[in-house]
Design goal:
The complex is a heterodimer. Helix content of chain A is 80%, strand content 0%. By secondary structure, chain A is mainly alpha-helical. Chain B is built from 11 helices and 2 strands; from the N terminus they run ααββααααααααα. Chain B has a two-stranded antiparallel ribbon. In chain B, β1 and β2 form a beta hairpin. In chain B, α3 runs antiparallel to α4, α6 packs antiparallel against α7 and α6 packs parallel to α9. The longest helix of chain B has 36 residues. Classes of the chains: A mainly alpha, B mainly alpha. At the A-B interface, α1, α2, α3, α5 and α6 of A face α2, α3, α4, α7 and α9 of B.
Chain lengths: 275, 284
């Protein structure tokens, strides 16, 4: 068990996660998707996030899947996120398939499961395209434009800024705990259990200094916000309009919307004629 | 005197607690999202068990800010940042986490009372888990039309869900929520509050209206729970509708109709939201 956990921890070392998440958040400002108007993308997501659940036609779902796969490719999403997506889809439907086969299912069970996994795949790829392909600041202003609470859009912008710092700090604390402590011997079975327990204990203890440091930091942040009059600004319509002025629909946005509509219509026609 | 104490928690301090709880719990859920779930015997390690962070904060500071911060942090860090946003289904988690953490924070009057801290933290976990369990059971009950007539189905659902829930509360809840909270609260008490520029909480500080379980809190919790059920069921109907009426859904005409309907719903929602935003803009 602990061998497994060590293996997982090796592959998903904090450094690795940090690079991937940072790459996902900041590394793709120059893609087609990142350059688009967030309002269009959010409306696009409303369609691709809801409609596939109501479809039952394999051909249509496949065509939609191809489309969202292309948009995901355009968004240059980090590999880690794609890996999580694959694990998610397969753990959901692969498990069902195994159970179905075990209880005497045959080839006919494959089709409904394919439909199911296609639905899940289309919806999650659409959400990956929008939420992971868009620049966080743009995403936040897009949500604000649709009337989401200011707290949410503030949280998104803030989260992307604070995450790298927090991760580095957490890593440093963990390393210093590890340097000062002696890890228990983990050759025997009970030793392994003790080792796992030790690791968990360190992680929990590491939150003590982390909480104190983050408290200092969040005070600084909020005081800086107060100095700039944040709480009055979010209630003022004029400030909001000024903030959202940067949102401008360009040629690329109309082109993208047009292509989406045409693709969906063609897919519907093709699937109705041939299947 | 009373007036002065009520004003002790200012808006900006609430904001600080919100930011603190959001970043810490967000970071923790980000890790648990990335590290696959694994099981040792009956004990399962997963997201819920970092709940000790918001629980600790809600006992030391203003409970509602800590609870909302934790739920927002989970939504932003682990769902939106990783592109795993699941739409309406996420609302259930958001509301149950908020209610659980808030109730736990309200229960503790004096953070130095270690027994109360332990009791409150396990109550918070239990409330959150029981609500999740109830939603799961309801989901199956409403999705299968003749729930009672399928032999053995009701029992098996109750047994598996009930067992998973009891296991989560008794093993993981005690090991990874109650004990860390009992370790952290007394250590942080009196140390972390000055960093946010406030006085440590004690029996006399006012954290809202009178009693622990004022009627307002109970009603709001129940309402929130109702919303959670509704959201989860709505998120689920998309799938179960098609599952029930497979023959009906096969015909192209019906499919086209469903498709058009869904598109219409999306468009209407879009229109309403847009109009609201515009109205609000024009209001000034």
């Amino acid at each position: 068990m602990s061998a497994l956990s060590e293996n997982i921890l090796d592959k998903l070392s904090i450094d690795n996660i940090k690079t991937q998440v940072l790459k996902n958040a900041y590394g793709n400002d120059d893609t087609v998707i990142a350059g688009m108007d967030p309002r269009f993308l959010l409306a696009w997501y409303c369609f691709f996030g809801i409609v596939p659940w109501f479809l039952d036609n394999v051909a249509l779902l496949l065509l939609l899947f191809v489309f969202v796969a292309v948009t995901t490719k355009l968004a240059k999403v980090a590999p880690l996120v794609l890996l999580l997506f694959c694990v998610g889809v397969f753990s959901q439907t692969g498990y069902l398939l195994l159970v179905a086969l075990f209880f005497g299912g045959d080839a006919s069970t494959v089709l409904p499961l394919l439909v199911m996994s296609l639905k899940v795949a289309v919806v999650s790829l659409a959400s990956i395209t929008v939420f992971s392909g868009l620049d966080p600041d743009k995403l936040a202003s897009g949500l604000l434009w649709y009337g989401c609470p200011d707290q949410l859009s503030f949280s998104i912008s803030f989260a992307y800024r604070i995450l790298p710092i927090l991760m580095e700090e957490f890593q440093n604390i963990l390393l210093s705990y590890r340097m000062r402590g002696v890890a228990p011997e983990h050759k025997t079975f009970f030793g392994k259990i003790r080792y796992l327990g030790y690791q968990i204990k360190i992680i929990i203890q590491a939150f003590y200094p982390l909480m104190l440091n983050t408290a200092k930091r969040s005070r600084t942040t909020v005081e800086a916000l107060e100095l700039k009059g944040y709480r009055y600004a979010v209630q003022d319509k004029r400030v909001k309009r000024m903030k959202l002025q940067m949102l401008k629909a360009g040629k690329a946005d109309y082109l993208f919307a047009g292509i989406s509509v045409v693709w969906v219509l063609v897919s519907v026609c093709v699937s109705r004629i041939y299947f | 005197m009373n007036e002065k104490k009520k004003a002790a928690v200012t808006q900006s301090q609430k904001m600080m607690v919100f930011v603190l709880s959001m970043s810490l719990y967000g970071l923790a859920t980000l890790f648990t999202e990335l590290i696959p779930k694994f099981q040792v015997g009956v004990v399962e390690f997963s997201v819920e068990y970092f709940l000790f962070i918001p629980l600790t904060l809600s006992m030391l500071f203003d409970p509602i800010s800590a609870a909302l911060g934790a739920a927002t942090g989970e939504l932003v860090f682990s769902e939106i940042m990783l592109g795993q946003f699941g739409g309406l289904g996420e609302l259930e988690k958001f509301l149950t986490v908020t209610i659980g953490v808030y109730l736990a924070g309200r229960m503790v009057k004096n953070p130095k009372n270690i027994k109360m801290v332990g009791l409150a933290s396990i109550t918070g976990v239990a409330v959150q888990q029981l609500m999740g369990c109830a939603v799961d059971i309801l989901k199956v009950q409403l999705a299968v039309t003749d729930f009672e007539s399928v032999a053995g189905l009701p029992e098996s659902v109750f047994v598996t869900e009930g067992f998973a829930c009891a296991n989560d509360i008794l093993f993981s809840g005690i090991l990874f929520c109650m004990l860390p909270t009992m370790y952290l609260v007394p250590r942080l008490y009196g140390k972390i509050e000055p960093l946010l520029g406030m006085k440590p909480r004690n029996e006399f500080s006012v954290i809202g209206e009178a009693g622990v379980l004022s009627p307002k809190v109970v009603i709001l919790s129940i309402l929130g729970f109702g919303c959670a059920i509704g959201a989860e069921l709505l998120a689920e109907t998309g799938m179960s509708l098609i599952d029930w009426e497979a023959d009906w859904a096969e015909t192209p005409a019906a499919m086209a109709a469903g498709f058009a309907l869904a598109a219409l719903v999306a468009l209407i929602a879009f229109g309403i939201i847009r109009r609201n935003a515009q109205l609000r803009m024009a209001e000034e």
